[in-house]
Write a structure and sequence with these properties.
heterodimer, A: mainly alpha, ABC transporter involved in vitamin B12 uptake, BtuC, B: Rossmann fold, Rossmann fold, 2 domains, six-stranded parallel β-sheet, 12 helices, 14 strands, about 15% strand
Chain lengths: ~400, ~375
Amino acid sequence: MNSQAVSKPESTDVLKKIFTGSALVSVLSVFLALVVGGLLIAATDKDVASTAGYFFARPTDFLSAFWSAATNSYVALFQGAVFAPGVSGPLGPFGPFMETLTIATPLITSGLGVALAFRAGLFNIGAQGQIIVSGTLAAYLGFAWHLPIVLHLLLVVVAGILGGAAWGGLVGYLKARTGAHEVILTIMFNYVALFALRWLLTTPAFLRPGESNPITPRLDDSALYPLIAGGQYRLHLGFIVAIGATVLVWWLLNRSTLGFEFRAIGANPKAALTAGVNVSRATILVMAIAGGLAGLSGVAQVAGTEKVLTDGVAASYGFDAITVALLGRSTPWGTFFAGLLFGAFRAGAVQMQIQTGTPIDIVLVVQSLIVLFIAAPPLVKAVFGMNRKKKAAASTVAGGAA
Amino acid sequence: MKISKQTRGFGALAKRGSLLGVAGVSAAALVLSACGAAPDQKSGSTAGASNYKACMVGDTAGFDDQSFNQSSYEGLQKAEKDLGISINKAESKSNNDYEPNLRAMTGAGCNLTITVGFLLGDATKAQAAATPDKHFAIIDFAYDKDIPNVKPIIYDTAQAAFLAGYLAAGTTKTGKVGTFGGMKLPTVTIFMDGFADGVKYYNEKKGKNVQLLGWDKDKQDGSFTNSFDKQDVGKQLTKGLIDGGADIILPVAGQVSKGAGAAVKEAKAAGKDIKLIWVDSDGYLTAPDYKDLMLSSVMKKMGEAVETVIKEDKGNTFTSKPYVGTLANGGVDLAPFHSMDSAVPADVKSDLDQIKKDIIDGKIKVDSVSSPKQ
C-alpha cells in the first residue's frame, strides 16, 4: 500500500546533491553573490552613469564613483546589520545586530522546517502556508482571548505550533496515503491558507471594532513574547525559542531513533521499508514536525514583531526558508547561521536603502544569486577552482557583466 | 570629428579577425558613449538651499504600484523640485520593515515623514509617540483619536465615483455597467459604493433601469481579483462583465486594471463598443496604451495632497487635522472626457455639473460605509 510513497523520482537525487553539498561552496557562493551584487549596485548608480559619460576624459572619476557606490552600500548594509560605530541614538551601536537577530528568528525556525523535511527526502515548499495557519491561530487566541500572563503566551505558542503541525502533517498524510507529490500539495496548501486568511480578515471576528481594513486588533500584552534585550530593541523571546528549536532538531536528527528513521527514508525509502521503518508514519511525522517548526515562525511574527495579524503575516519567510535551508545544507546549525546571515541582509537593507538610496531589491538579488551559485557548484568551483584556464574564463564573464 | 577618427581606428582593427571585430564594435560603442567632456569641477552638494527634509515610507506594494504608493511618491518628488527641499524614501518588503524604516527616517533627520496605507497605522502611531518633536502624515488612514503630530490624508472618493456612476449610466448603450475591485479594502470599495449610488441616482432621476454588475452596495459584496498584480485575473473578470452585457467598466485594482484594458481592447477588436473608466489618476494621460478606451477617470489626487501637506509643514502651519480630499477642495474629481467627449450626451454633461455643485453644497449626500468619518 505504500508503494507510491516509497517510489522516488530521479530528480530528487539532484535536489539532494544541491541541498547537502559542501559548506565551502556555501561560503564561496555568498562571497560571489556579494561581488556580483556590488557590480550591480555600481552599474545602476547615478554617479557611476554620469562619470561613465566622460570616462576617457577623466577615468579616475568613473573608477572612484564605481568603487564608492558599491562600498558605500555595503558599508551601510553592514552598519544596518551588525555594528554601527558612533551611533548615539536610543539604539546605540549594537542596535543593528539586535535587529538582525530579530529578523533572523522566523527565518531560522521555518528554515529548520524545510531542512528537516528535506533530510527525510521531502521537498517542503509549504512553510509559507504553515506560517500563515499558525500565525492566524496564534493571533486569534492572542487578541480574542484574555488570559493571565505566562498562560496566555504559552497557549499562543502551543496553538501556533499545533496549527503549523496540522497544516504540515496533513500534507504528510496525503502523501503517505495517496502518494500525491508533496511539492504540489504544499504549494496548493499555501494558497488555501492565504485565501482562507484573507477571507477571515473580512469577517467581523477578526477586525478592529468599527473598522473594515483587513487588520486584526493588537494582541494582548500577555500574549506577546517578552523583549529580551531591553525595551528599546525588538529582540524577543522567540529568538531563544529558535535556538532551542535548532538544538532540538539537531538532537532529533543525530541522537534519536525517530530522526534515524527520517534520515533512512530520506536516503532510500525502499530500503527503509525493508528494514522495518514505517514509512507512512515517518512521512506524516516529519511533515508535522516541519510544520510545527514553521509554526514557530508564525508565532514569532504575531507575538514577536508585528503584534497584529494581516495577510502579510508570512511576508516571504516561507520561501526564504527554502533558501536558508539550502544555504545551511539542511543541517540544523548550518540553517541557524544561514538564517542569521539572511536576517543580517534584511536588517541591513533597511539602512542601506535610506543611507545610500540603493534599492532594497538588491538584497533579494544577492539572495537569489546565492541560490543560483549553490545550485551550480561547478560554476563556483570554476571561479575559485584549481583550473587556471577556467578561472580566467569565468572572471571575464564576471567582468563582462559589469 | 573626434568620434569618426576613433571609429575608423576600430574599423581597421576589426579586419584582423571576427573576435577582435566584435570587441572593436563594442569598444567603439563604449567610446561613443564615453568621450564626453569632464565637468570642470566636481560640483558640491546642490541641496544646500533648504535644511527641510521630507521623507516617505511605502508599504509592501512598492513605489511602482501604479496606485497610492506611486502617486504619493510622485507628490514627494514634485515637492522636492518645487520647494527645494531634500527628500528620502524607503520601500518596505514586509510588514516587519515598517518600524525600522520609520525609526531610520526620523534618525536621518526627516522633519516630516509620510507613511502610505493603513498597514503602517500602528507603526506610525508608535514612532509619533516616540519622537513627539517630529511630524508625520499617513495616507488613506485615519485614527479614532487625534494624534497631535500625525496628519491623516484621506479621501471621500465616493463623491467623484458618484459622478462616474451617473456618467456611466447616462452613456451606456446596453443598459448595463460593470465594476470590480482588487481587494475588498475600504479604499477600494468606496469607489464601487459611489459608482453604485451614481447609477442609482440616474435611474431614479430618469426613470431608467441601468444595472450595475460586479458590486452590490447593500450586501457590500462583489467581484474581486484578490490581488493587485495579477493582470490575467483582471482580464478574465472584465471579459465576464462584458459577456454579461456591460459596456462601461470601472476596474479599481491598481496594476490589475491593465488586464481590464487588455480585455476591452480585445472586445473592441471583436466589434463591441466597450469603454473604461480609470481610477486614481487621469488614465488618458497615465495609461496611454488604453487612452482611446477611456471615457473618464475617478481621480484621487494624492500627489497634490502630499505636496500641500509638505508645504504647510515647511511653512510651520502643520496641524493634525485630517486632510480630506473632496470635490469641494479638488482632492477628488472626475477627469475630462478627452477623446470621448462626443460620446457623452449633452444633457448628461450638464447634469454632471449640477450634481457636482449639489454634492459640494451638500444637497446630494453621498454615503459609503467606507467614507472618512468626520
